[in-house]
Amino acid sequence: MIEIINNRIVNIDDDGNMVEINDANMIELYNSMKVMVGDVVIDESLIKPIEDIYHYIIEKIYTMPEYAHEISFKSFDEHPKEKLLIAFNKFFFDMIEKYENTGPNTD
Amino acid sequence: MRTLDQIQTNYFAIDFFLTMSCNKDCHYCTSYTLEQRNLTVDMDFLRSTLHYLRDYKCRINLLGGEPGLIKNLYEVIAEVKSNPNHVCEVLSNSTVRRRYPEVLKDPEIIYVEHMVLDFYEHEITKLGPKSYEFHEVNEFNNYNLVIKTPNFEEFKHLYPDDIKKLSHKNTLWKQFNGRSPGFNVIHQAAEIDRKMCSAFPMVPVIDFEKQHIVHCSKKFANNSILSKNFDITQENIDKMMTFNLFKYENYCVNCTEYVNPKGHFPLKKYVSLLNV
Questions:
Q1: How would you write the pLDDT of chain B (276 residues) with one tens digit per residue?
Q2: What is the nearest CA distance from A96 to chain B, expressed in angstroms?
Q3: ipTM above 0.85?
Q4: Would you call A94 helix, strand, or coil by DSSP?
Q5: Which of A39, A83, B14, B127 is the most buried (most CB within 10 A)?
Q6: Chain A window 18-77: which residues touch B at a Cβ cutoff of 8 Å?
């Protein structure tokens, strides 16, 4: 389960262990998303097929955070916001999966 | 009058390759033939294509080949201009200046003149007559286009007066790409930029000879691998304009074309166009 605690992204496992996601770019992406779409919901069940371009935009903002701050988003209506949020969740959970698979070896 | 900056920000660009024929053979160009063919635009095809695009804000780039060779160019331009959603742009090697001078007097037409072939040790070679001067600062939306070839970088210091004449708002400096043999430009943009480019490539082409949509104008001719293409239908045009037609293709993986480091257009352009 993912929780946002004190503006930090924390992964809570089945045993209640909390592991902070320390990826600075991910936190920056999360903050950019807040500016872009307002309330950022992190929920894997939101993920559904959308056009590739939204995934590209999220990947672009992840790699180049300033890209998201080039403009104000007043003209952004709900429809693309929803799709951006879907793309964000897809990207986020893919990263979490990658993070879990490459985490510290505890054997 | 709409400025070029406004148009570049708010409109998608679509190339109309009216003919492959050209009266010049620039060493870095891949989309031309010296054979003179298809010099009259099929107006029925043009009208149907523009009709499919009627609701989309587009910058229609008329080029080829050389659009100045087109016999009914004024008729083509009038048709493009008839829709307020469409902005007409003409890219010419200066043949349009000679044959269709009215184009330069109309500020609603973006006229881009690619007159400089290249820079050499002893001269700047021009595609037009030597008597043609570069466009000065103007409010007619007439622009010089200069490609920053390897020779430009090597010899530009020899021509300070010319560079001064070109250094103003009505000159577009285009990054050179390494398509031609012998020019070993291998810079590759970050993969994400190429992906964004391929989603609405820089730029899609309507091929008037084969009458279909071409994904990438760079993989157009004289390439071992050619761009993917699609029939011109309302469905495909709608898909194209809403990011559903073009995908990241195998030829994008190795693309060495210059892609603007921030993506081929700014995010604010997506913002206004993604509201679909």
A1: 788 888 887 888 999 999 999 999 888 887 778 888 889 999 999 999 999 999 999 999 999 889 999 999 999 999 999 999 999 999 999 999 999 999 999 999 999 999 999 999 999 999 988 889 999 999 999 999 999 888 999 999 999 999 999 999 999 998 777 555 566 656 778 888 888 889 888 889 999 999 999 998 877 766 677 889 999 999 999 999 888 899 999 988 888 777 776 666 677 777 766 665
A2: 20
A3: no
A4: helix
A5: B14
A6: 51-54, 56-57, 59-60, 63-64, 67-68, 70-71, 73, 75-77
Quote the longest CA-to-CA distance of chain B.
Answer: 54
Is the CB of A73 less than 8 angstroms away from the CB of B271? yes
A-B contacts at Cβ under 8 angstroms: 57
DSSP B85-110: TEEEEEEESSHHHHH-THHHH-TTEE
pTM score, two decimals? 0.87
Contacts 24+ apart (CB under 8 A), B134-139: B134/B162, B134/B165, B134/B166, B134/B171, B135/B170, B135/B171, B136/B165, B136/B168, B136/B170, B137/B168, B137/B169, B137/B170, B138/B170, B139/B1, B139/B107
Q: How far is CA B161 from CA B68, B124, B174, in A?
A: 29, 12, 20
The residue whose two tokens read 């304009």 is B241
Cβ–Cβ gap A53/B200 under 8 Å = yes
Dig out the tokens for B225 from the structure: 């691998």
Best of B198, B274, B275, B276 to disrupt the A interface (most A CBs within 10 Å) is B274
Instruction: Please tell me which of the candidates B199, B268, B271 has its beta carbon nearest to residue A56.
Output: B199
Both tokens of residue B21? 């024929």
Residues of A in contact with B239 (CB under 8 A): none
Reading the block at residue A77, the tokens are 């209506």
Which residue from B79, B65, B85, B67 is spatially nearest to B217, judged by alpha carbons? B65
